[in-house]
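Record type: monomer structure entry
Structure origin: computed from sequence
Chain ID: A
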Amino acid sequence: MSGKVRQLEYQWVKNLKRGDALAFEELFHIYGKRLYHFSLGYLKSKPDAEEIVQEVFLKIWHLRASLDPGLSFNAYLFKIAYRQIMERFRKLSLERRYLADISAEVVPFTDELNERADYHSLLELVRKSIDRLPPRQKEVLLMRRSGGMAVADIAEKLGLSPKTVEHHLTEALKNIKACLNGDQAAAMLFFCLFIRDLPSSSKGPF
């Protein structure tokens, strides 16, 4: 970065710190496209990369009062972006895990293997099946599997008895299984991949 550009950046950050919207627009104009391509390199998704840019600059605006014009704004900006990207990967990993756990319970198991099926399409099918659940079943299932909440905690939060919560969980899994009954070959492939990828210390779904 040239000395002139660094001086301009210093002034824009200084003005942004005071709440200057025009300075914010200037910084967005300079760094927005670079930040987009940086994010795209990790995420391989244009919509996700665009969301990261929006999230980062929104965070910059909210934290503007704490900015230090004497420090590298470029380094600060991309550090925030990197953290946002890693957080997105973490959430995706958690989602993949709970979908895999549910799939392991509800997919039909046969001796046949269909070459056209794959692991990711099966998880997508499970996700769509969850979206079609009755609202209460979906809420309870996501609190238990995605949120990691205990049955007793779910019962207390929703004002239900533990037995009612367990009933909703059982019915949710039955409904998901009904949606997947037609894709037996995909189930076989899923089990091969899922068991291979699971760590040996993996706990059960409940």
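Annotation 1: The radius of gyration is 23 Å.
Annotation 2: The chain has two domains: 3-71, 92-197.
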